[in-house]
Amino acid sequence: MPNNLVNNTLIDVEVKDLVKRYKELVAVDHLSLNIKRGEIFGLLGPNGSGKSTLINCILALLRFDQGEVKIFGETMTPQSYDIKQQIGLVPQEISVYKELSVYDNIDYFCGLYVEDKATRRRYISEVLDFVQLNDFKTFLPRKLSGGLLRRLNLACGIAHKPRLIFLDEPTVAVDPQTRNRILEGIKQLRNEGSTIIYTTHYMEEVEFLCDRLAILDHGKILVSGSNDEIIAMSSISESIKIVVYNLPDSLVERLQSNPSVDSLSYQEGNLNLTMKQGGNNLLAVLQILTEAGFTPVSVTSENPTLNDVFLEITGKELRDHA
Amino acid sequence: MLRHLLKYGFKTYVRNRPNLIWNIVFPFAYLAIFFMALFSLSDTNSGLDTIHLALVPGHAAVERSEVDGLKTFLAFAGEEGSWQDEEIIFSNNEESLFVFVEGEESEATTWLEEDKIDAMILIDDELSFKVNPIRRIAATVLHEALSSYERMSTTQEVLTAGYAEGKFTPPADVAEVEANRFLGIVKEGRSKAILSEFIFFFAALAYVSFFPISSGTDVIESIEPGQSPQALRKAVAPLSKWTHFFGALIPRWLTHLLLVVLAYGFTQVLGIDYGGDHLRIIALLLLGTSAAIFTGTAIGSLVPTGQGPKVALSISLPLLFAMASGMMASELHTLVMQYVPWLHNINPLGRVTNGLHALYAGTDLSRYIAQLQGLGIYIAVCFALTLLGIRRTRYESV
Question: DSSP 3-state helix, strand, coil percentages of chain A (rounded to 5)?
């Protein structure tokens, strides 16, 4: 999903040859990564794959054994307050104070970054609109549903308008409506100029949101790139099924000789094609049929998904580990 | 920025329901229950009702000195009543264990039957008494008192005979001793005698002052990324860990300093007598509470595990220290001093207990000041351990 908001020349996060060990276990194994300004970058991986460790290393929370982390071109340390000023974190666990109202929670966390009260009030008002919690601003968190809590958790991490936002599975255990609202909100954040690092177990979220993604397992990046690039790397092919009657042998042979077609069978009006690589060959096949004067009765096409690719690469079902 | 942290630090702390119950309501409830359960120990009459007596010389030949001797003895824990308009007038002094009048046997029997007195004592060659059947407790107390009197009289007679026979050298004021055989016992002895029991009250107040260890562990939990999700979020903010530390510490610390002063005020409302040196007592309690808070911060920073071990330490340490200070059994205080002196020396709760005792019964302030110094050193050590524990800003795991 190429996006003209992504600045290909500016790198906001640069990770070089990062190694983090927990005694015998190598949690991050010589990992290198660049995240461009203005992109939504997805980190995918099963539990224990090293996603959270990688994020904590990037945020200078964890001591690592080797490598370098730069944010906005500067080396990241626990004392890099200028960099931290421009970072927002939305942890997976709900990280709000149950004793404070929705408004006070946002004010508290925003106040760690923004001292001026008037500016803060404006930011809080904007973020309340953004996550649609205006009607609940005096509520205590225990009065909120799971979905509203997730939105509050998000609001507390982004109210100060950070340039770089880390979102750690922000849609876990929310209803589809809230999830869609959060995903649309994240896109809006990117449209407003933020760079977003997004970890999730939900493949469809990555496909919907991310400009680029990396699939991690055992502390290593197995593949990275855009959705299409990653799907194209897969050996799994597109499968096309067309119901069309009375095809002459010459036309079947013409289709068979198409360089994209891997295999073909035609029996009793069922034309089954398996394409060689990647997806989106359907239009080309249909064009050949219509030019020859045949109208299909029905058409189905199954493209490989990221989930298929993930399964192929890691040998694991992502959701099963969520 | 610190103001922002303090504002929300206070808000989150005082609105937290477990804190409210555990750290704020519990100490007051504890003091009230402790007071109700053990207040009789601080009562100089040990909670006994005044016993009304008639003294009846058994026959005319009974020596006057025998009657007077018994009166003197009883007056040690009471006073003599009087006649007025054919009625016996007894004192309403609640401090008196005994009030008594002298009368004929027939009169005394009538008074007993009319429930005007609790018992009559017949003074003959031997002492005997009759008790109002509905006042059985009076019989027990009277039996003990008269037995003591008999023993003292016998001892006195033996000593007097010994002086007369030249077996002992009589003291210079033997005549005065003869005249008042209970002169050697001073009334103040009774109040001194209950001091060892009063250690319960000193230790109980010290326990309340040293109670809020969990608030100290909370401080660390709120700033260490591995210990709470809110702390993880704070660790990414552009503030130093020290700012977060003091932002979390000061609201909790000040709240508990205020609470311990209120708790002391509550004891005064309840009527528990700690000697009346309020300012010095409050200074001692403030240091005790500070010691608890910094014990908590030291535990929180040096035991970076889950809640369980910290909660266990927060509950068990004050109880251990309180036990060693004599809150459960006053003898333990002495035993710990004798056999586990190091525990006695480091025990901050014990120092508060000792300080309260020193103010109550001491003749100068040297012992009290020594407790303040000990607490000061304890707090400094805990603070240093806390700083050592929270100095890290990058973690092995979070």
Answer: 35, 30, 35
